Every structure is written in structure tokens, then in C-alpha cells.
Amino acid sequence: MAYRKPFTPQQRRDAIPAYRSYRKHRRRLRLYYPPSNLEQMKLLMDYDEEIRQIANQLKKPDVKVDINALNTADAMARWIGTEYWRLNSIL
Question: Which of 18, 25, 46, 57 lies in disulfide reach of 70, CB 3.0 to 4.6 Å?
Fold first, then answer.
């Protein structure tokens, strides 16, 4: 989802379940598909960082949320999750 200014309570209600989904997905990846090489380990660390960036933005009041940072972190988290699966299926 692309967030826009002004950041509204409805957007926050949509962003919080997405954030929780990323955290749940990260835990499952680590448990069921642990990294088998350095590249996968780096991707998981990057995934952790993007999830933290989303959390940092969601902790702020609506008027102080940096929409660009939130959109970038959301897009990167989606991309990293997909890339991890791609690397996992190659091995």
C-alpha cells in the first residue's frame, strides 16, 4: 500500500497489520527456512532493519510520520521477503 500525506488514522490502521505480518513472516523465515549462506543472512538482517524502520515511523504521531520513509521501508520489506524466497528456492 502506498501511504500518502496527510497520514490518517485509517492509514495507520492499515499499516499496523502489515507491520505485524512482516514480523510474523520474519520469525517464520528464521524458524522454518534459516539462512544457509551469507547472502541470505544479509537479506534477513536487511529485512530486520526495514521492519524496524516501519516500526519507528508508526511510533510517531500521525502528523510527524515521514511518508516517504514509510513507503520506502514497506517496499523494501516486500522486496527482501520475495528475494529471500527466490534465493531459498535456488539452493
Answer: 57
Can you give the C-alpha Rg of the chain in angstroms? 14
C-alpha cell at 6: 496527510
Summary count for the chain: helices (H), strands (E): 3, 0
Whose cell is 531459498? That residue is 88
Integer Cα distance of 40 and 70 in angstroms: 24
How many Cα atoms sit within 13 Å of 16 on the Cβ side? 8
Residue 76 CA to residue 91 CA, distance in Å, equals 23
pLDDT tens figures, 53-73? 999 999 999 999 999 999 999
pLDDT of residue 91: 58
Task: Look up residue 10 and give its three cell numbers.
Answer: 485509517
